[in-house]
Amino acid sequence: MGIGQQKLKQTELTKKVFLLKGLVLSGAILLFQAVQTVSAQPANNPVYTVSNFEVWAEANDAVAAKKAALEDGKVVALSLLLKRLTPYAQYKNLPKPSSAQISKMILSLSVKDERNSTTEYLANMDFRFSPDAVKKLLGDKQIPYWDQQTAPVIIVPIVDQSLLASAPGKQTPLFSQSDWLTSWQTLDLDHSLVPLKIGERLSVVDQSVLSALLAGDQAALNGTLQAYRQPNVVIALISSSQSANKIRLSIVGRDTLGDLTYKHDHILSSQDYVQAADLAAEVALGMFETRLKFVSMGGNLRVRKPVEVLPWETQLQAAPPVDGWQGQTQENRHGNNQNPRQNQGSRIAMRVNFSGLRQWQAIRQRLSQVPGLQGLSIDKLSARGADVSCQFPGGAGALNQALRAKGLSLTRNGAGWVLLDG
Q1: What's residue 186's pLDDT?
Q2: Measuring CA to CA, which residue among 374, 272, 363, 382 is closest to residue 324?
Q3: What's the sign of the alpha-carbon dihedral 254, 256, 257, 262?
Q4: Which of 27-41, 68-82, 139-153 has the lowest mean pLDDT?
Q5: CATH number of 46-140
């Protein structure tokens, strides 16, 4: 790039920064721009549905297991919905209604792929909540929210050649296109604030076009949009990182807020590409929603780093995750180990990865047997992993020592703690 082009790019960026400041200062202008990007909403607002949500429970018999799964499922489903609607800064203030109150907020419940044994119950469920009830719940706590979907965005998952190669001594690739598709298909894309529709890779999007898109070539972006005949298309490329123990997610294209560049490295735990890719897709979906909430809610939204949510370009290599699962403990929210509440047992959030239900059951049983571990909560469960939280005196470091006696351990990645089996 020549000196003149560099100056032009810097000038354009400066203009965008001033534009952002003007939007933040002017609520009327900001609201007007947000309204322009929002499609008309049907009477049955889809964002109040939590779909493809997997529930699981174990009890003395199948009937009790199903009841327990439904009870736990509706609590977690409502929590996911509230986080979808509200800014990250408000998560700590979110209300926690009783089980009976949540039941009254559910308009409908549908069950898919139901499986059970004599003592277990597993199913995928769709929870549809009452918009009025949820709004009242948040309004009573004076928590701001945004519940308007944008127009759909086409997302095209692509695996880079660097990951499609076979590992040394193995016949299978490190990671496959099917794996990457599954990472996105397991998310609730239809009911997101920014609904994503998975698209196929067209032949025109070859390696040269990908390189040009990642380099910020406007002609390549315009050509890609024309090829798909859609106004909003983003490429989600998973590739090797410069670091041997990381993979990189790059998202480039245009959504309803404008041109977007997003790059973030995710740590590989025990060379588990599937786990890292699942987390990458989940965090990226949160990024889309965070950008929308930032632009739409204006002064009501407080962010830790403006770079996380710039409407036109987001670079997150050195930034914390933006939405969805955060994996933060009480101690690292304070930024040190001097938390006076730590001796009472800090709340620790962990990501648990497993290959199937049998492994998950074994991990959960061992967790329940760790001395001193209290308040074990399953915050989210899917076919390949779970988000759990618990309390343990001394924090994550002390818990890690106790876990080793059960063949488990904790490690850090870009989003928080990950529980490893073995």
Answers
A1: 87
A2: 382
A3: negative
A4: 27-41
A5: 3.10.28
